[in-house]
Specification:
The protein is of the alpha/beta class. The C terminus is likely disordered. It has a three-stranded parallel β-sheet, with helices on one face. Helix 3 links the parallel strand 3 and strand 4. The chain is globular. It starts with a helix and ends with a strand. It contains six helices and nine strands; from the N terminus they run αβαββαβααββαβββ.
């Protein structure tokens, strides 16, 4: 999915994987910058898109590794993982999410690796009833057809 985003020259795309090997392999095939998480990180992002294996992985990345500390006020998190309602409630009630007005959008995908490669995934999308005015995010647009276009205005 990030491979499709890497084709848009208007998106400054940083990639992070808990396995450095996976990040290096991705960067050989797609356009983007490697994001190295450290205590000295100065970057602040408008949003983050995650696709992880389970609830504990999302908590590890967003909370324990402090990715939410790297988000600007009024930023967004779009999560493409399959997660529990309990996780969504925990994330949405997190003090850092609330104090920085960070929106959490639950957007699990269906279609598998082949769908991701071909740009034919189905995305179920839910979250707060508010808008994000600072970006237009085109998630999976191909020249043949538009699978999902999230216009966050």
């Amino acid at each position: 999915m990030s491979g499709h985003l890497s084709k848009d020259p208007n998106i400054d795309l940083y990639v992070f994987n808990r396995s450095n090997r996976v990040t290096k392999r991705w960067l050989k095939d797609f356009n983007g910058l490697e994001f190295k998480l450290s205590k000295d990180t100065k970057n602040k992002f408008n949003g983050v898109i995650t696709c992880l294996k389970d609830d504990s992985s999302i908590v590890e990345v967003l909370i324990k590794n402090n990715f939410i500390g790297l988000l600007k006020s009024n930023a967004f998190v779009i999560d493409h993982s399959t997660t529990s309602l309990q996780l969504i409630q925990n994330i949405s009630s997190n003090k850092k999410f609330i104090s920085n007005n960070i929106s959490f959008f639950d957007a699990p995908v269906s279609g598998g690796e082949v769908g991701a490669i071909n740009g034919t995934l189905s995305i179920m999308y839910g979250g707060p009833n508010k808008t994000v005015s600072y970006t237009h995010l085109r998630a999976h647009e191909t020249s043949l057809h538009l699978v999902c276009r999230l216009l966050l205005e």
